[in-house]
Amino acid sequence: MRRRGFIVIAILVSILMIISALSPVISADTLSPEADAEYYIESGVTADTVSNGQLISEMMHILHQKDKSELKLGMGYVVNEKIIARNTSAGTLELELTGTVSLAPDCSIYQLYNNEAASISFKEVYVGAKNVFTFFNAAGLVQLIVVDGPNAITDIRAAITPALSTVLDHNSIIITSKDGFRLLDKKAEASLDIPAGTDVAFTAAASNAVTVTMNGQSIYTTSNRLYAIPVNEASLLQIKSFKRAYGYPNYRGFFEITPSSSAPGKLRLINELPMEQYLYQVVPSEMPASFGFEALKAQAVAARTYAINECITNSSLAKEGVMVYDSVMSQVYNNSAENALTNQAVDETSGLILVKDGQYVDCRYYSTSGGYGASIHEVWADGATGAFPGTPLPYLTARSYTYDPVNPAQMYTIDTSNEEAVNAFYKDLSFLSYDSESLYFRWKVSLTKQELENTINKNILLRYAADPRAILTLNSSGEFVSTPIPSGGVGTINNMYVSKRGAGGNMLELVIEGSTGTYKLLKEYNIRFTIRPNKTDTKSAADILAYRAKGGSTDYTSILKNPSILYSAFCTFDIARAEDNSIQTVTFYGGGNGHGVGMSQYGASMLGIQKGFTFDQILTEYYAEVDMINMYDIQDKTNIFKGIFKHLDETLESEPFVEELTY
């Protein structure tokens, strides 16, 4: 069956071919405004649309010029399809219907906006964008990409993982809806209406395909992308092949189901939906409604800004065809059900995001501060070079959030490079802080020598495999270098000490002296992951107990069993030794929960509830000297191609888009 989209493309290509035949080499300077207007009026765009031919001259400049030199048209065809994935390193795009295509070595990329044409980078062709026109040359390579209008990110493509992790692949997927839904194969132009309350199972089939089963009967098999689309915007889709904290999760928007690109026999699941609806299911998953309305609004703004920044900067996500994970690798999405208060917080901050010097703010946030925050470059390596410490950001720098006991109007500070001062600070339970109502404000956990060796020897190998540049070995020249760790890890531990701390007191470097060598762990996550104080990693016969306390306490009042990792890198430790100087036990004393960069969620709650801060005041307390704008204020003033396609589309004979499947 024909598709109107391809007919439209064919007609547009014919127009371009006629222009090319009349003038093999065309430049914008050879076309008068009158000629521009005449051409586009014949194509269905009125003179009111083009404003004296200015926009058309810009478009012709893009089509036929490069760096102000004449360029032959040479285009084979053009498509207007949604960008599904972008692989920057490989120079490929995945288009919704055409599939994966490769860029020509001299591919040009432009954006048309506000009556201007600007050259943009390949990284600025965003996943999920629908206003992108891809021009192919005679060899089938992408010669030109035009983003027609603003590069606005209003929808989110979230990778739905089976267990809120980085594992994208599903063994099977079961979808249902109390209102029913439509199953759609756009490429094959086929659809099926699923009755209300009916479970539909998706499994991987041979030859990289998907099999659909309903009522115990196989009803469809395809290698194409499948869509599960609700009957209306208010209707929710439910997944029944896994559970979240509140049971089988319900999702807004629609689903895409495809065979896994990396794991034969597995499936991928993507949820696409408007940004605000995405936040309906992020905010309650990241912050309890009890944290107060102003903190919830601050969380909504931070989460919205964070999501946009992930879409723009995270090339590894773009390669997978998504903008965010549904886990802590991005931000937790739909692990808790929506509620009226968190939805209201999203609605009342609709579109609000944080920017700094024309760039989106990197809105990191975490659970609890132990009295200090960290600088971003002292937690994460540089994204481009991998160097650690990474690139500083002026609005994400270390600072104290602890009140001075002598003068509570001031913040208390210590020399965070002084081990004795840090040790005394985190052993003191009496301090008050923005976060002192959290039971994670102070904590301690003890490990025997054997328990410590077990977790380190197991996990240092895993961290070296994941991040070899940050797990170093002391060589014979006295230098720490990246080299494979012995299979037995560090062996018997003889000593351990912090060799460097960040400005906020967080551990940057931990040195471990073992029987197989001396090793240095860089970055807070590698340190926290290597020393995992739980029964499994330590191989302890009994549970490992972590003791917690709020600020202003005289003793620890809460006990948790088997922490998955050290709660934070804002910690110190005491080593108890036997008479022969061998290690007996190591006790860690720390504060806070999480990486410590950006907004503390417990701190935001206390500032709103106890201090009366509004959401914007909370945000500027954690993100220094930033501006707040509304992302929806961007108006599309161009969209030249849409006029052409709209006119041609209206002249075509109407025909159905999909065929019905029988079963």
Q: Your description of this structure?
A:
This protein is α+β, with helices and mostly antiparallel strands and 663 residues long. 24% of the residues lie in helices and 30% in strands. The protein has 15 helices and 40 strands. The strands form nine sheets. Strands 22-10-21-20-17-12-13-40 form an eight-stranded mixed β-sheet. Strands 3, 4, 5, 6, 7, 8 and 9 form a seven-stranded mixed β-sheet that branches. It has a six-stranded antiparallel β-sheet with strand order 16-15-14-11-18-19, with no helix packed on it. A hairpin with a 5-residue loop joins strand 28 and strand 29. The radius of gyration is 29 Å and the shape is globular. The chain starts with a helix and ends with a strand. The N terminus and C terminus are likely disordered.
For the report, how would you describe the main beta sheet? 8 strands, mixed
Amino- and carboxy-terminal Cα gap:
21 Å
- Proportion of beta-strand residues: 25-35%
Overall mean pLDDT:
86
Secondary structure: helix percent = 10-25%
Multimeric state: single chain
Structural class: alpha+beta
Radius of gyration, CA atoms, in whole angstroms: 29 Å
- Main sheet: strand order: 22-10-21-20-17-12-13-40
The count of helical stretches stands at 15
Number of strands: 40
What is the 3D form?
globular
pLDDT < 50 runs, ≥5 residues: 1-58, 62-74, 635-663
